[in-house]
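Today's session is about reading a structure prediction critically. Students often jump straight to the picture, but the first step is always the sequence itself: look for stretches that repeat, for charged clusters, for runs of hydrophobic residues. Only then move on to the predicted structure, which in these notes is written as discrete structure tokens rather than atom positions. Here is the chain we will use throughout the hour.
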Amino acid sequence: MKCRYYLVLMRAFAASAVAFAVASPVSSEPVEDSASIEDLMKTGWQVAGYTSSVDNRSAFILFKHPDESYLVQCRAGYDVTRSPRTFSNCYELR
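Below is the predicted structure for this chain, in token form.
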């Protein structure tokens, strides 16, 4: 039983690592400082994928736009020690 749990956990970790590696930018540029996930969604960007990060306090969200040739990756999270408590950092993936 313990071995199965370990195997499932390792497979989940491997899948997360692969998703993170695929979504990691080789060369990235910050999107406008004022750009937020809400702004991206309002301007036609669509969620292409998402995964939680290793620390389980944030998530990576990948966005695509039908008229653009690049993707945007955002790291979004919630931290009770910050004000405002939610945060996001977005980058263009070219």
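Discussion point for the tutorial: Residues 13-30 have pLDDT under 50 and may be disordered.
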